[in-house]
Amino acid sequence: MLWTASQALRRFSSSSHYYQNKLKLAIIGQSQFGQEVYTSLRKQGHKVVGVFTVPDKDGKADPLAVAAEKDGTPVFKFPRWRVKGKAIPEVVDAYKAVGAQLNVMPFCSQFIPMSVIDQPKHGSIIYHPSILPLHRGASAINWTLIHGDKKAGFTVFWADDGLDTGPILLQRECAVESNDTVDSLYNRFLYPEGIKAMVEAVQLIADGKAPRIPQTEEGASYEGIQKKSNAKSLDEEWRSSRTKLLQLQAQVDLAQPAEAIHNWIRGHDKVPGAWTVIGGQSVTLYGSSMLGGAVPAGQPLELEGVTQPGLVTKSGLVLYGTDGKAVLVKNLQFEDGKMIPASKYFSSGESCSVELNEEELKIAADIKAGWNIWKGILSNVPAIEDTTDFFKAGAASMDVVRLVEEVKQKCPDIQLQNEDVYMATTFQGFMQLLVRKLRGEDQEDELLVNYVTKDVNNMTVKMPNQCFINGRFEDAESGKTYDTINPMDGSVICKVSYASVGDVDRAVAAAKEAYDNGPWGRMNPRDRGSLLYRLADLMEEHQEELATIETMDSGAVYTLALKTHVGMSIQTFRYFAGWCDKIQGKTIPINQARPNRNLTFTKKEPLGVCAIVIPWNYPLMMLAWKSAACLAAGNTLVLKPAQVTPLTALKFAELSAKAGIPKGVINILPGSGGMVGQRLSEHPDIRKLGFTGSTPIGKQIMKSCAVSNLKKVSLELGGKSPLIIFSDCDMDKAVRMGMSSVFFNKGENCIAAGRLFVEESIHDQFISRVVDEIKKMKIGDPLDRSTDHGPQNHKAHLDKLLEYCEVGLKEGATLVYGGRQVDRPGFFMEPTVFTNVEDHMFIAKEESFGPVMVVSKFQDGDVEGVLRRANDTEYGLASGVFTRDINKAMYVSERLEAGTVFVNTYNKTDVASPFGGFKQSGFGKDLGEDALMEYLKTKAVTVEY
């Protein structure tokens, strides 16, 4: 590749550390953090001569050990280094034998003897999650939050024989947000920046530039380890720095100001958990935030140690501080480990039983036998008891209809559905459900939406702008928002909630509850399909509004948004709605073990909670392509729209609720990919992640998914799709479709033809006709029905495209047309054409993702040569060929290395046809039956009889 001067400089700068001084290192520690530090140091050229980590637990090696063993690095797994304070000689000897020049200790939980600490030439450095000398000790981050510090951070220091008192090598700081937890600080800053800092520290030592700044005693503090006797298993990354449990230290004192209560709870969230006594038992409090504004209505809850009772509201448990201010707690965990939303305290588990009054007791007796309903249906049962199960007693689906209709006949005011019987199968459970309905307690909360409204496109569009979690629109936990921009003029459309890691955890918990215990998982597949059909119908009713929102938020030309962005989304939901009751396994003949016989069959089952992360070029359509298959398969989902285009996803959330999709099944979180997307890829309760976006981010997501819990992944990534145009093509069609292959949706199209190969004899004619057609294109307001070409999605992308064109010019490609920003407000770019593009050039290799046509010639008749050039890319998403020769077309289509091949057409996708790439364009399929399989697992059952 021919590098420009600026590119060469960037390349040299990014790799220059590799040629600096290098050390022989011993890594002493454990956890995923330790593994990342180890891997990063090796990539920088340092030699790791030994890894000293902890013994395997339950037969499973620590992540640091796994990585080192794979690389062939010597690994030592000592249970301990000292006995009664004295170093174990054979352990120390084994350590000395590796000949390390520096010990690197990321999250080391073991007590290392000073004979080992001081042995190497350069001593030892340790990572500590606090800004030393503040919060010396193992629970440093907890105390950062408990004390309400405005800054958090970490220190890399030189180990000594004190309690985190050695000289400081380097420190990094970050601001503490009002609702940060240990997890959010860790994920946002302490983990990613800590890895970089450890590598930087080692290089400073290798280069002889590492400082040794003595720790001052001014501001120094030491707090004990925060533990609790009933704490559950600790988060993997912090397990190493929190050793044995200490009794009672995490109990929250409710007789203090609200902010102090909030800080105490969040300082212990998620581990070990701050607790208090409610109803005579210890209850752990999770998900705390300061409550601003009016306190919602609720039911009082008596708590120990307070002068004012708490309040169970629809938003959670409200706790009052001594200053009169309030704290909102989202989740509660009981002594048996069961966790519930705090809002459900009075309607969950054992406490959900309601006491029937005299009139309700009479109704129960009548339903049981007096009206001959349950007894009449279950005539084979001697007596109907509270524990009698409707189905175990022999009832069938027809009996469900009879039960519902008979009850409605006797109680005409009740809204009872067949599905209710399946949700409450015992007589006692059925009566509890019935009484709640009679009292009106089970009525669905009205969907409250704080719309942003705009009069545009001859209509009033109503846009939700908050997170959608568990069937409700609500602000992000942090209260943060950001502006979403109209690319036509750069104006702010509205402010949108900026989801946090805590919001992700709440959304995943809601999706998991909906999957495990909600009606979605128990629903007849045909009924599930009916709901998806209803959702598609609602989308169609609102298609003009959806297309208008899509145009404002993404810059798509309205007519294209109406037909493709929205139209294909509707088609996708209808297509997969039809699949719901057609998901089936097969029977398999296996070898019989005589005299027994065997029956083996397979079942297709949903995966559970799925995460979906979508790009900004087709915001609604990408949502539909993935979520329709996911939902049809019976999963629940948490979806992150692109940060710059969240509005149609949030409108979709509103329509899904109105369609009757149960709470928690669909959750939408606008916000940062680095925060929300990363947490989704790491979350242990997510079983599948579907991603569309760039290849580098796809690789990072795949790595996080593998390390976290080996969740299933499907990736639709970058492309550099070749389009080969032979001289025997239909020229009119080749020009029209060739332009569409590049300029469709402003070039913001994953399958856009990234490089056109035009046979030499027609090359000049093709270019001339393309330029003539470009000059006829109308660039302007995307809501104008006659507009051909709208603005690029956002300013950063426009700037990147302009830089892309500059590189093409510097490398020697011929700019035939365009290459500039249009002189008008907004993010408009001229359709651009480059010719004389050689294979080594940057624009021949890299995707523009914009309206840039990159054209290369190939010699007449050189089919094999152009195929080699077309396949000379790491991408393989799509491709195309134009020729009237069907034999040539089939030959070329067979040899093009891409997931989709278009012959004498382009951009022709259909909901029934699988879509996905090869090589570094990813794996897995959207659309078609193949997409459904991405969201199912196969279970084999063998029966011997």
Short description:
Helices cover 36% and strands 21% of the residues.
Topology:
Blueprint: H1 5-15, E1 24-28, H2 31-43, E2 47-53, H3 63-71, E3 75-77, E4 82-83, E5 86-87, H4 89-96, E6 102-105, H5 114-117, E7 124-128, H6 140-146, E8 151-158, E9 168-175, H7 182-206, H8 236-239, H9 258-267, E10 274-278, E11 281-291, E12 298-301, E13 310-313, E14 316-320, E15 326-333, E16 339-341, H10 358-370, H11 374-377, H12 397-410, H13 418-423, H14 427-439, E17 452-456, E18 459-463, E19 467-469, E20 472-474, E21 481-486, E22 491-497, H15 501-516, H16 519-522, H17 525-541, H18 543-554, H19 558-577, E23 587-588, E24 598-606, E25 609-613, H20 619-632, E26 636-640, H21 647-658, E27 666-668, H22 673-682, E28 686-692, H23 695-709, E29 712-716, E30 721-725, H24 731-743, E31 753-759, H25 760-776, H26 795-810, E32 814-817, E33 832-835, H27 842-845, E34 852-858, H28 863-871, E35 875-876, E36 878-882, H29 886-895, E37 900-903, E38 918-919, E39 922-923, H30 928-933, E40 936-944
